[in-house]
C-alpha cells in the first residue's frame, strides 16, 4: 500500500461504503453495526466499541461490552447540539487504577481513526509522559485490530515507530511522548492523554490542545488517576471541571467524570473503594483491592500510594514528613505579647530574587514547649505570577498580614535586614541559623544597622539537617510545638517530604516535596540551633539527637 517499514505488513483493503474507495475493484461490503441508519452519534460510537474484542485480562477474547458507567461517560462526551455537532472538546476521566482505562482509550482512538468518528486524513494521537506509556495504548489498539476481521484488512501497522494508518480514510495514528517541542506541526483530530496525573508540566498538553484549532470537531480525552498534589496540571484541570459542574464556571466544551473517595472517608471500607473504582467486582478485582488495603493499613508507608492510586485521592506516594492531623494538633497560638524580651532562635531561608523568603523564630520554654513565629516575603510585582504558579492565595495572605510584600519585582534584602533589626529590638534573639545561599547580600546590611546577633551557617545536607529534622519531628509528635496554624507555614508543612540517606539520616527535600517548603526549612534550622545550645535539662531528649 506504499506505507512500509519495520513492522509493517501486507494489507487487504476492504472498501468502505462511506468513502467509496476501491469500489471498482471489490464488492460492496456488508453493513457494519455502527453504520446502521437512524443511530445517534453516541450510539454509533457505542456500536463501534462493542464490535471490538477484549484482548487482555480475565475477559480476553470476549466482545467488548460497555458498562453503564462507561456508557454514561460516552453519552456525555458524544452528545450533540441541534446542528449535530459535538460541543465537548475536552473530557477528563479520572478513576482508580485497573478500571479498564487503557482498553477504553484504545477503543475510542480506533473510533476516531477508522470508525464512526473518523474524518478524511484525520490525525489521532495517544500522548503520555514517556514513549513506553504512550505505547501501551498503541499495543492495545494493535491487539484489537488483530482480533477484528474488518479492521485487520484496512489498517497498516508500523510497530517500530508505533504508527497506524487507515488506508480507507487516510487517517494516521501515532504514540507521542512528552517532548512537546517536536509536536508543533501536528493537527490532531483526536488525542487521548494517558496518565496526565504523573506529568510534571502541561507543555505537551498545551501543544496538542492548541494544535487542534484547525479541525472542525476535535476532541481531547485525558484519562488518568489523580495527581498527588494540588498544583499538578491534572489537578488544575479537575478543579476547573468541578467548577463547571458546580455552575460557577460556564464552559459547555468541558466535561469531567471523576470517581474518587472523599478525603474524610474511611479508606479501609469497601464502600469507599467503590467510589473510586466503578469496575470493582467486575473487571477490577475486589480481592486485589482488599489485599492492597490490608497491606496499607498495616504498613503506613504504603497508605499514601493506596490512597492516590486506588482511592484516586490527591495524596503523594512520597511519605509526608508530617500528617495534617499531627500538624494541626500543634496549632495553638503563641501569646505574642508574653514573648517580648524572651530568648529565641531564628532560622533564615533566603530565596532566589523572586521566590519566597522565610524567617522563623523558635521560643523555648521551661516546660519543654516551643512557640513558633514565622515571617514570609514575596516581591509585590511577582505576587500574581507566584499565585498562578503555586496555586495558593498569596494576595489574600498579604492582605491578612501573613505575607509581607516587598515593592518591585525582586526580593530586596534591605527589607529582610530591617525586619531582623526590628525583631532583635523586641526579642532576645540568641542566634540566626542561615542557609548560605545569598547570605552575602544580607550580612553587610545587618552590619550597617549595628545588628550583632550571631549568624551561624547551617548546612542543608544530611549531616547538618538530620538532627534538626529529628528534633522538629519529636516536638510535633509530642505536641510540644505551637505554630498558631499560620497558613503559609501550614502549606509548607503539608508539602514537605524528608529524604533519607542509606544510614537513615534525613533532610527536607525541596525537589521531591510537593511545593514550597521554605518555612519548614527555616523552622528546622531554628529548632536545630536551639537544641544545640539549650542548657535546660528539659531539652536533653532533643539535644541527644543533635
What integer value in Å does the Rg equal?
29 Å
CATH class of the largest domain: Alpha Beta
Q: What is the terminal-to-terminal distance? A: 73 Å
Helix/strand structural class: alpha/beta
Unreliable spans: 1-6, 14-27, 535-546
CATH architecture of the largest domain: 2-Layer Sandwich
The number of helices is 20
Physical arrangement of strands within the biggest beta sheet = 3-4-5-2-6-7-1-8
- At the fold tier of CATH, the topology name of the largest domain is Nucleotidyltransferase, domain 5
Query: Please, what is the average pLDDT?
Result: 86
SSE blueprint and pairings:
Elements: H1 41-49, H2 68-77, E1 90-94, H3 101-114, E2 123-127, H4 131-146, H5 149-152, E3 155-158, E4 163-166, E5 172-176, E6 190-194, H6 203-211, E7 219-223, H7 233-245, E8 254-258, H8 270-276, H9 286-298, H10 303-309, H11 324-328, H12 336-339, E9 343-349, E10 357-364, E11 370-379, H13 383-390, H14 394-400, E12 404-406, H15 413-426, E13 428-434, H16 443-448, E14 455-457, H17 462-477, E15 481-482, H18 487-495, E16 498-500, E17 506-508, H19 518-533, H20 540-543
Parallel strand pairs: 1-7, 1-8, 2-5, 2-6, 6-7, 9-13, 11-12, 11-15, 13-14
Antiparallel strand pairs: 3-4, 4-5, 9-10, 10-11, 16-17
Helix pairs in contact: 1-2, 3-4, 9-10, 17-19
